[in-house]
Amino acid sequence: MPRIDAHLHVFTKASAEFPREISDVWPAEREEPVEKLLDEMEKHRIDQAVLVQMAGASIANHRYLLRCLKAYPNRFLGIGLVPEGHPNPADHMAELTDNTGIIGFRFSTFGGPRDIFAKMDVREFEAYPIWKCAAERDYVLWLYPNAINAHLLPYLIQEFPQVRVVLNHLAVCPGKGKFSWDAFGRPQIQVTGYNLTMHTTYRLARYENVNVHLSGQYAFSTEEFPYKDLAGWHRGLLTGFGAKRLMWATDFPWILEEPGYGKLTTVIEELLPDLSEAELADIMGGNAKRILRFPDL
Amino acid sequence: MILPTPEEKKQWEEEGYLVFENAIQGEDLKRLQTAFDYWAEACKEEWLDRVEAGESVATFYDIPNPLEKDPIFIDIIDYPSYYGALMDFTDHDLILLGPQVRTVAPWPVSYTGWHPDVGHDNPLHIKVQIYVNDVQPGSGEFGFVPGSHKRDAGPYTRPMRQESMPGHKTFPGKAGTAIMFNSCGWHVSMDNHSDGPRKSIILIYEKRTQGRVGPEQYAAISEHCQTPERRKLFSLDG
Fold it and tell me: How far is B57 from chain A (nearest CA, A)?
């Protein structure tokens, strides 16, 4: 069974050939190229990976991702972005998925009522056309919902049960103002001690098309690797979703310095030590291969 | 004090729950509904801000510090219709752990799955859920597995759907109904597929153990606790 890293990012220096957004963390001259990733994968026996677009949602911003997917069609699948407020998201998505290796798109908002007590008409949600398009074209939706959007999800999932959904980073829904970068250049998300997502995204386990990737531990934990304070979260996800709907991921490159790619290949064994060999193999790659339809090597 | 009948005691021991229909009624129920609605509305926007900030659960909310907001929330803690049973089951050594004055939104999925609250090593832990509005089937009514509180019951696993739990019973009821249950038992809020919120109050009690609740916890309502019984219930004298 292949070992698949189900969520990471690569990017190159900003240039006319590969334009991208820049920030303090990914300034124009920084690069975390696919070759560096392949070295790590080789060293730690990881066969395939999901490359998730960052640093810009325009078609041009996707050029480096598209190049990587084209260069290594058997190694990688891609997740793209859609510009917020795009007048015709279906066209944007169609262009990016035209035999390119991009299989889906990542979102954090759904454009429905902020108040869970409001009348919910899913067709009025701003994200409705995107979900409809995903349902018609068999895209995967890669979701990292803001906390104020989490309650909207089941309405969309019920409306489009055929859409494969992957909840990112332990199904956490980050709160407004709770994001920062730590000394190692890694995203940090301040979360409450009591796991609020038990009452929102964890409850979506009922829907068979909803999956979760187990990654980003460093961003939520108050401990160093192996992030034992999150063992309960992992057990909760395993209990709810079962071993067939969880996928391991590293969130490369943020983890390269601390704790390092190699250590993260063991994080599932550390946090879920009672898994059977078959369950571990599923989480480490079998599920990603089946759910995301990775090609045979 | 209304003590439980032998039949009620038997049901409590064997099934782990009791239902008190019309436990609160008349003017007291109106007072409770009025205070609940007023404070739930007053606290809602702040709750939404906390949801947005990732600091509160998105699928239900509790009125913060309800005992300090209206005396009716204190009066229901030792309300006669069920207080005698609470005292009897705890050998007259009862403490309040806390109230949850809770509004549960309609949502396609219940906000929680089947679970017990405590293990058998815990001192007797009892909850009383009081419906503030009428709770019809399919609108977030309480569910319980009779007998699941017993040490030799189970093992139980959490099913994907609330209605798939073997042996469970659901408890729709009129406003003012109180359902008392042993928290070792497996219980849940059923899905709320209705158009409206489920309004209920969950009172949490335990048989006293030394130091479980400090005198500072309810110091703010001390003036409402003048009798020795109440002061003991609210752990006000240490």
Answer: 5
